[in-house]
Design goal:
288 residues, alpha/beta, 2 domains, six-stranded mixed β-sheet, elongated, disordered C terminus
Amino acid sequence: MEILLNECSDYMLTYELLNLLNTCNEAPIDKPFKEAPIVEKPVVEEAPIVEKPVIKAPAKKHTIFYPELDDSLFWCMYVNEHGISAYETQRLLKKNMVNTMMTIKRKMFDYFNNDKQQLLKTTNHKVTIAIANEIKCDIMTRRLASFQNMIACCVYWKCPIVVELCKNIYAKFVSNHYVSDTLDEQDAETVLLYIVKSRNRTRGQPTFAFALETDREKTVEKLREMRQSWYCINHYQKPIGAISNYSLSELVNIATIVCEGDEISQKKQEIYHSIILKLGTMTVKQFV
């Protein structure tokens, strides 16, 4: 047994070996490799995306009233008298617009039927008794959309009516008894109408309709332009007077406006004839 222990003494944990191990543990142990230092990348902050404000052009205000109901002239005069808000409100409330129209037309008929002064004959468009009676009948039985019925409108609503017939040509309807409330020649009460193609034309309805300018500033500006450089027809049935009523220079001035772009002759008869041809298309039938 003693011999066996002696042979294994080299493999035993003796006090000498334990002290040697403790000495080795106290010595620093070199690391096999050095770790590379971690270098943090600088954080680059992205510049915020600034959206450019979208500048919208101001919406153009539509100032022309296009009646969607039948009898465009009546509804233009109605809106001019009561305002577009009253018209739209009644339509939103689904009022019977035909009843509204016929109620007012009845008042118009009674007004002229009881008129002893024959006011229909006292406008800048002279009419006969027969035409005056026809106008009164049309009030209750037909649309007002004709030139001769504008005579009734300007008298009943007590305001001048100016109609743009086509480029550089217009007509004016005004009662001889009309007196402006202002001294301004532009007259804030004048009604400006345009002739346009009918939007909701059905069989039997007119090809053309009337539209109303509702913006007062535009109306005043347009009326000023008309007075200065447009031609105003003499009468809705006879746009120009007899040739003997004009001098050569006057006819040249009219032709310059009416026949814009056309070659103007220097002979009075030929100038007058070219004006007649230009104005001849503007008959009542064209617009009713």
